[in-house]
Structure formats: C-alpha cells, structure tokens
Design goal:
The chain is of the alpha+beta class and about 450 residues long. The chain is built from 12 helices and 7 strands.
Length: about 450
C-alpha cells in the first residue's frame, strides 16, 4: 500500500518536468487561441449569413456567406486536427473530402448539406468554454513560473538596505486567497510554494481539459457516420477500378507500341535474311541479322522496363533499398533517410515507391532545385509517412488535372492521404501517408 502511494505521489510530482507536459501546455495555448478565434469567426459569419438571408433581396448573399462559413469550418477542423497530431501525438482521420456538385445551385446545395462542415461548426461553438479553460491553464502555468523566480528577482532588483520603496506582489492564479504583498526576502519563498502549486495544478488541469478536447475532435472532426464511410469507400473503389483500368491500358499500349513492333521487325528481318541465304549477298544478310539483333535487344529492354513499371525488382530488398536506388539515379542530387520498423505490405510498398519516383521526377522537371530529400518512416499509429522535399522555386499545387492529383487518387484507394506545402519561392514538401497494410 505504501509503495503504491509513493509511486502515485512520484508520478504526480514528476509530471511538470516531462516532455508531455510541455506539449500539453503548448496545445492549451495554441489550441485555446485557435478555438477562441474560430468561435468568433463562426459566430459572425453564421449570424451575418442567417440575418441577410432572412430578407428576400439578401437571400443570395446570405447563402453565399453560409457556404463560406461551412468551408471555413472545414479548414478550422483541419487546423485543430493538425495541432492535436503535432502536439498531443493524437491522430484523427480526416472526414471524406467535399465533393462539389455541378453548377452553381448544385455546389451551394452540396455545401449546405455537408455534414462534416456542420459538425465542424458544432465543434467551434462547443470549443469556446474548452478554449477558456485552456487559456486559463496556460496563464496559471506562466504565473506559477513567474512566482518561482521571486527569490532571484528580489536579490537582483529589489534588494535595498533601506527597505524596498514598495512591496512585491505575488500573483495567485486561483480565485481563493487573492494576491499578497512581499516585504522581505524570506517572504519570496511563500511565492515559490504558490508558484510550484500553480504549475502542478496547471499540469494536471491541462491533461484533463485536453483529454476532453481529444474526445470532441474524435467525435466532431473525424469521420462520423457509416454513411460517410460508405460514401468514401465507394469513391476510393471507383478510383481503384479506374487506376487498374488505366494501368492495363498503359501496359497494352507499351506492348503494342514498343515490344510488339520490335518483335515484328525482328521476325521480318530474320525472314528476309533466310531468303538471302540462298544468294551470295553476304553483306545484305549480315545487315539484316544485325538489324534483327538490335530489334531483339530493344525488345528485351522494352519488356524489362514494362516489368519494372509493374513491380520494380529493387523492392524485393525492401523499400529503403529501392528508394536509395531511385535516388542514386536522380538527375538532381537526392538523399534518403529511412526508419521503417514493421515492413509494409507489398501493395503499400509499391504505391510508396511509385509516389517517390513521381515526386522526384516532378522536382527534376519543374522545381529548379539543387537538392532533393526523401524521408520515410513509420509512426506509432501504424502509418507509413513519406516526405519528399526540395529547395526549388515552389508553387506546386494538387489542383485538378495535375500529376499530384493522380498521386492523391492513387493513395486514397488504400485510405492514404497526400498533403502539399509549396509556397511561392519554395521550399516544396509533399507528404504521403499510407497505412502499413492495405
């Protein structure tokens, strides 16, 4: 019993000195600030949209404001999910992407029916009291740290043999007791006790309020209903079918335009050479045989490239080795950093390899970069994370019709995600997140 008490007491007292506490308090500050700002943005836009749309003349403008508010709520939801992932190490899957309708009325109707956006608005409204507690928590921690420094502050700035001109004020972040004055150096130790208690209380209050915030994020900012999940699966299934059909058409085209034509030329040259064997024209026979040999070599090269496009042989030795081989053949100097624990499924390795190959090729063609960095590792949540960055001119977008759009569709077939960060002037970083198993 005594051992359990000592263990629990040690855990409570050591909590302020852990890295987790630093992340929790940072999340309280950043998440609370984002929540408060998001609440007021949501309230203002909703109020304006509903008020204006209540009038006959302002219906169109009001509906546009409502659709804008719903779009902003999705962006705010993404911000909160990223903060939770970055600081709390809490991964929440994003809801299905918004699928716009056709025409203006179709787009407005789809946006107004966007359940994920309405749940994001619900989160912004509920977030205000949570944000208040989070801001209060970080304030209490800061005040506590200031109180702990009072003995040093007294010795450096308040030490006066004739006595201080006015007392120091020890701040109390809690409502009970209020602030108190300090008239001598021994009194600063009472501020130290109060500060240590404030930091300890803020540590556990941050963990408690962030635990509640994580539940809200999971419930309101992630995939909610089975209908949304089924809709996303239908979309990814359609993309998988289209990707497979495109791959088959590509294989058929490569065989028809490459190896098939070369083998046909090989057969024709060999037939002509056989006809020339009965004559004394040895030079012509030799030329035909040389042409047939070249066609055979070219056909083998085409077949080898085609097989490599279906499944690169370098993947047999693992994804890190395959990416290192890919980087070695890059026209721009490329480096690979790999930290893969559990080996992904073969299908995931293939998708990651072709994503890296496409991203390196894009950087070579468009970025004017001097260096490419490939970083791939596995996360604790069972996610394979591939990051390809370059120091080029930036400006890459995953807009409809670009190569990045095709990559995003390919990774979405296995519930993966693609994120692009490419401000004008660079640098460019493309992140691909894939599950370890399809």
């Amino acid at each position: 019993m005594d051992e359990d008490i000592r263990r629990v007491t040690g855990t409570i007292l050591r909590a302020p000195f852990t890295r987790r506490t630093v992340r929790e308090l940072l999340y309280c500050g950043l998440g609370g600030l984002a929540g408060a700002i998001g609440f007021w943005i949501t309230i203002v836009m909703l109020a304006l949209g509903l008020t204006i749309s209540a009038s006959v003349l302002g219906t169109v403008i009001g509906l546009l404001l409502l659709t804008l508010a719903l779009r902003v709520s999705r962006r705010l939801g993404g911000l909160h999910r990223r903060l939770a992932r970055w600081l709390l190490r809490y991964q929440v899957e994003a809801p299905p992407k918004f699928q716009p309708g056709t025409g203006i009325l179709g787009r407005v109707d789809k946006r107004l029916r966007d359940r994920a956006a309405w749940r994001g608005i619900s989160y912004s409204l509920i977030k205000l009291p949570v944000a208040f507690v989070q801001v209060y928590t970080i304030t209490a921690a800061v005040i506590g740290l200031i109180d702990i420094t009072y003995p040093i502050d007294w010795m450096l700035f308040w030490h006066n043999p004739a006595g201080p001109a006015h007392p120091m004020v020890a701040f109390n972040p809690f409502s009970f007791g209020g602030n108190f004055d300090i008239y001598g150096w021994p009194g600063t130790f009472l501020a130290v006790v109060l500060g240590a208690a404030s930091v300890l209380a803020a540590t556990w209050l941050a963990r408690a309020i962030n635990a509640g915030d994580r539940r809200l994020i999971r419930a309101l900012l992630g995939p909610s209903s089975m209908a949304e999940r089924v809709s996303e699966l239908e979309r990814t299934r359609s993309l998988a079918v289209e990707d497979s059909a495109a791959a088959l058409r590509r294989v058929e085209r490569d065989l028809h335009d490459g190896a098939q034509m070369r083998l046909a030329a090989l057969a024709m040259n060999l037939g002509m050479a056989r006809e020339k064997l009965d004559t004394d024209d040895d030079a012509t026979v030799r030329e035909l045989i040389d042409a047939a040999h070249r066609n055979a070599v070219d056909a083998l090269a085409d077949l080898r490239d085609l097989a490599r496009g279906i499944h690169p042989p370098a993947l047999d030795n693992g994804l890190p080795s395959a990416l290192a081989t890919l980087a070695a053949s890059s026209a721009i100097p490329a480096s690979v950093t790999a930290d893969i624990g559990t080996r992904p499924a073969p299908a995931i390795e293939t998708i990651a390899y072709f994503c890296a190959a496409e991203l390196i090729a894009n950087a070579t063609k468009h970025s004017y970069a001097n260096q490419i960095k490939v970083n791939i590792y596995t996360e604790r949540s069972g996610v394979l994370r591939l990051e390809v960055s370059d120091d080029g001119i930036g400006g890459a977008t995953a807009s409809r019709g670009s190569g990045l759009t095709g990559l995003a569709q390919r990774v979405s077939t296995v519930d993966g995600h693609l994120e692009v960060s490419s401000p004008p002037g660079g640098p460019t970083t493309v992140t691909v997140k894939l599950p370890l198993k399809a």
